[in-house]
Structure formats: C-alpha cells, structure tokens
Design goal:
By secondary structure, the chain is mainly α. It has 9 helices and no strands.
C-alpha cells in the first residue's frame, strides 16, 4: 500500500503540472496548485520552498524521477550498453513530457533566475549524475581513462535528443539512440577506438539502423 504522504505528494505534483499546462509558469501560483490538489498552502510550503522547486519537482516526477533523483542506469556490463541505457532513459523522460509545457518552461527560465537555477540544479544534474555513473563504471572496468568531461557529453546528448523531438521532428527512436552512441559518443570517449566490452556490446552496423 502506498503511504498516505506519498499519495498526497503525487496529487500535488499532478496538480502542479495541470495548472502549469493551463496558465504557464509566470501565472502559476502556489495558491492555485493548492486549490487544485485540495491541499493547504502550508502543506505545499512544507515540501517545496516556492513554485520553482514545486514545478521542477513535478516535471522530474513525471519523467520518472523519484524523491532521491533519476533512476540509476542499469549496469549492462559494457560501455556501449550503458550509454544506450542512459540515453533510453533520457528519451523516455523527454517523450513523457508535454512539448508546449517544456518549451514554455525554458522561455520562463530566461526571465526567472530562481527557476533557471533550480532547473540546472535538479534536471541537468540528474542527467550529469547518470552519465557520471556510466563513466565511473567504464573507468573501473578499464574501458576509459578517468579524465572524461561528463558535463560535455550530457550537453551533447541532451541537445541532440531535444533537437529531434522539438525541432526537426525526425524519429526519436531506439535506432537513433544507438546511432548517436556509435557515431558520436563512443568515438569521442574512446578516441575513435571500437567500444570496449562484451561481444553483445559492439556497435551496430548502418544496416542495423
């Protein structure tokens, strides 16, 4: 059975997304979310200091993150498999979101420094932590050196997935994820060497795409 507190939190986060989709970030208020969730403002403020933290928490939860952050990427036993797994998580997170809502939130970030700082401190850090986990595993296996710029790879991956979904409209599917790993990430990480790992972890050929 789900604890009552968890149910209440889920209801508030769902209400926050509903209000955000209806009125946008600038017009969203804690009062409106509390009314939609049939909760008191005091309940909201006990959990979230302000609307920036509430909205980011709602977006993270909708994308599959728990109270302690995004799910840990599965350990596939090889660098390529781990990269595919973390990108599949990022893809699922993006596809779970409402496009207009996310684009509106990004616009609001330029006007609201508190929102911008909160997004960067939670959503961006979730992705960096996931890539960091993959890199740490690869270093322990001896597949990579320890001087990898995980922030750069997070930015490259996020930008390419975002572009597919919100800009070009081209398919954002498993084939693209594997191609991104094989054609961009692994060559950059390994200096052009084949992906280390078990046979099943080897890159796909162009015909497999």
């Amino acid at each position: 059975m789900t604890p009552r507190g968890d149910v209440r939190t889920e209801a508030i986060l769902a209400a926050a997304l509903e209000v955000l989709a209806e009125v946008g970030y600038d017009r969203l208020t804690m009062e409106a979310v509390a009314a939609r969730a049939q909760a008191s403002k005091a309940t909201l403020y006990r959990r979230w200091p302000g609307k920036a933290e509430l909205v980011v928490g709602a977006v993270r939860a909708h994308g599959g993150a728990g109270p302690d952050g995004a799910p840990v990427p599965p350990d596939t036993g090889g660098l390529r498999g781990d990269l595919v797994a973390v990108l599949e998580q990022m893809r699922a997170n993006l596809e779970a979101q409402d496009a207009a809502l996310i684009l509106g939130l990004m616009t609001a970030m330029h006007r609201d420094p508190v929102l911008a700082e909160t997004v960067r401190g939670r959503l961006v850090d979730d992705k960096r932590a996931a890539f960091g986990t993959v890199v740490e595993r690869a270093v322990r296996r001896g597949d990579l050196a320890g001087d990898v710029d995980t922030a750069l790879f997070t930015e490259i991956s996020s930008a390419m997935l975002f572009s597919r979904l919100f800009v070009t409209g081209e398919p954002l599917d498993g084939a693209f994820v594997r191609h991104l790993v094989d054609a961009v990430l692994i060559p950059l990480l390994t200096g052009g060497r084949p992906a280390p790992g078990p046979p099943a972890d080897r890159p796909t050929t162009q015909g497999d795409l």
